[in-house]
Amino acid sequence: MSRVLVTGGAGTIGAAVVRRLLGDPSYEVRVSDQRAAPQWMREAAEVHTGDLRLPEQAREAIKGCTHVIHLAAIVGGIANFHRLPYTLTEVNNALYNAVIRSALDAGVERFTYVSSSMVFERAELFPTPEDYLPDCPVPLSAYGFSKLTGEVYCRAAHDEHDLPFTICRPFNAYGPGELPDAEPGIAHAVPDLISKVLSGQRPLEIFGSGEQTRTLTHVEDIADGIVSAMGSPAGLNEDFNISSSRELTIAEIARIVWEACGEDPDEFALKHLPTFTVDVQRRWPSVEKARRLLGWQARIEVEDGVAATVQWLRGRQQRAFAAPVAST
Fold first, then answer.
1. How is the chain split into domains, by residue range?
2. Which of these, 148, 154, 113, 143, lies nearest to 133 by C-alpha position?
3. Cα(313)–Cα(194) distance, rounded to whole angstroms?
4. Which of 28, 41, 118, 249 makes an SS bond possible with 37, Cβ 3.0 to 4.6 Å?
5. How far apart are CA 173 and CA 190, in angstroms?
6. For 178, what's the count of Cα atoms within 13 Å in the CB-facing half-sphere?
7. CB within 8 Å of 145: residues ≥ 6 apart
8. Contacts of 187 (CB under 8 A, 6+ apart)
């Protein structure tokens, strides 16, 4: 039986990956995260709590594991990338140093690095295939560059020390698990938009023209893609775009959210806010390689996935309002 360490396993994608692994009897699961793991995770998986930037903590987390899925990183929405460029670079690089070195020392059978679509933030070829990366202009954002750096770490560790790796690039993850933030742009677009609609914002505010495109991919599909790539012999020393194939504009996504929240389609209207220095204008990956080598493809339709996410967030809000207030 394989024992898989999921770093950052208490996050939105991490939790989906843990659920996917726990559904397969061939895997035992260990989670490492500085955040508190939910009760279901503590009951079903081994949990390590520590700072993986510290080599001794990384070694402790990986000890006895045959596989690593490395998700731990500073992530978030577009505003977060612009607010914390040095912090995310410092933290993510420290994680690469400690976690990859520990994986090498432990002799893991597969190191799966979860990268990002932001490595292609300046792509000029669409749909964007994996083998375009050497020709793609280098990311301008610190976040995109940081995630690309992680890919370089993996390949360098393979070239010098034979690290068996797999690189997965999720595109526009959404789904139950991520809460919106009070400041627009800190969280990802879908929870941000749902929160705005449910709070009664009229017209609905978006960044930029709304003509920017994205390929929303449900976290359950992403988790299945990551685990499939990790477990497949065809995934060894390969990189994969883990994404849906449906390209949507931000305006179209906003309308889908609006209608999923039960609002009148005829009352849909947008207000365009100034956007950020780095705001990818088009994101549309090729998914042929994952389909061909792994037999994997995204299956959850955006309308269905957004509706389920609305239901989850609405339920969270209702429980929060129903919670008793402690007297002082």
1. 2-171+217-245+283-300
2. 148
3. 8
4. 41
5. 9
6. 27
7. 89, 138, 139
8. 76, 77, 178, 179, 180, 181, 195
Which contiguous run of DSSP H or E holds residue 217? strand 217-218
Provide the b/e sequence for 218-231 (b: ≥16 CB within 10 Å).
bbbbbbbbbbbbbb
**What radius of gyration, in Å, describes the C-alpha atoms of the chain?**
20
190's tokens: 């879908």
Beta bridge mates, 112: 69, 166
- Cα separations (Å) of 325 from 288, 315, 317, 328? 52, 18, 15, 10
Scan for tokens 């997965």, then name that residue.
168
Strand-pair partners of 114? 168
State the amino acid at position 311 in one-letter form.
Q
Distance CA 80, CA 125 (A): 27
| Per-residue pLDDT at 326 | 45
For the domain with range 2-171+217-245+283-300, which CATH number is right: 3.30.530.20, 3.40.47.10, 3.90.1150.10, 3.40.50.720? 3.40.50.720
User: CB of 298 within 8 A of CB of 221?
Assistant: yes
Question: Residue type at 84?
Answer: L
Among 36, 16, 37, which Cα is nearest to 170's?
Answer: 16
Strand pairing partners for 206?
A: 272
Q: Which two tokens stand for residue 234?
A: 């065809």
Asked if 217 and 170 count as a contact pair (C-beta separation under 8 A), the reply is yes
**C-alpha dihedral, 251 to 141 to 137 to 208, nearest 10°:** 20
User: Rounded distance, CA 171 to CA 116, Å?
Assistant: 7
Average pLDDT across each block of 10 residues of the chain; the chain has 328 residues. List them in order.
96 97 97 95 97 98 98 74 85 97 98 98 98 97 95 98 98 92 76 95 95 98 98 98 98 98 98 86 98 98 98 84 50
Residue 225 tokens read as: 């893609």
